[in-house]
Amino acid sequence: MNLVQKKNTFLLFVSFVLLWMMASILYDLYERRQGNNMELESIAGHSLYMTLSNYEEIVGNHNGPLTIESVTGMNRRLAAIEAYSDTIDRATHTNLLNPIANNMLEITKDLEKSYKEHNGFTETDRANYSVLMNVSKSLIPLIYKIYYTAGSEEGGKASLTIKQYKGIVELNRSLSEQLSGSSGPR
């Protein structure tokens, strides 16, 4: 083998090794990204489940008359929902669920404050409580529709790509209007 052939063989070998190393590194990056996506989907899925569970508890446990205990219980559940909603919003790169939880928490705080000021609830308070119940009932099917991959069931695959969220935006807009309208005199 002459010098030129040896040099070409060596360059071919080095090229092959470099190509193999690049492929190996790219595959490793791909595997890591897949693992990170699966982990993020798992975290988002758990947060969705907990959010839904808390909204279902609100709907199931607070169908009776308005009491300070029901407002306090709703406030605790909404605080948990707020934390899980923040996780979901971060995972999906949206700001959809957390503002609703924040607005609902604001209303429950207003209800607690009004109860203390008036030694009971006013008609406005009863209307706001009804709004909270209706928002909770409306959110449950929207969360299933928007945040889960089509065809999956509760606890199924959470979707990290949110495309059709019009219903949640409208619900939050309505809730924000209710909040701004309820801040007047009671």
Number of helices: 5
Cα radius of gyration in angstroms: 26 Å
Structural class: mainly alpha
| Element pattern in H and E | HHHHH
Which geometry do the CA atoms define? Answer: rod-shaped
Summed up, the domain count is: 1
Distance between the termini: 99 Å
Largest sheet: none
Average pLDDT metric:
83
Helix content: over 70%
Number of β-strand runs: 0
CATH class: Mainly Alpha
The CATH architecture category equals Up-down Bundle
- CATH topology call: Four Helix Bundle (Hemerythrin (Met), subunit A)
Report on the structure:
It is a single chain. By secondary structure, the chain is mostly helical. It has one domain (40-181): Four Helix Bundle (Hemerythrin (Met), subunit A). It has helices at 3-61, 68-92, 97-118, 123-147, 166-181. Helix 1 runs antiparallel to helix 2, helix 2 (68-92) runs antiparallel to helix 3 and helix 3 packs antiparallel against helix 4 (123-147). The longest helix has 59 residues, at 3-61. The chain starts with a helix and ends in a 5-residue tail after the last helix.
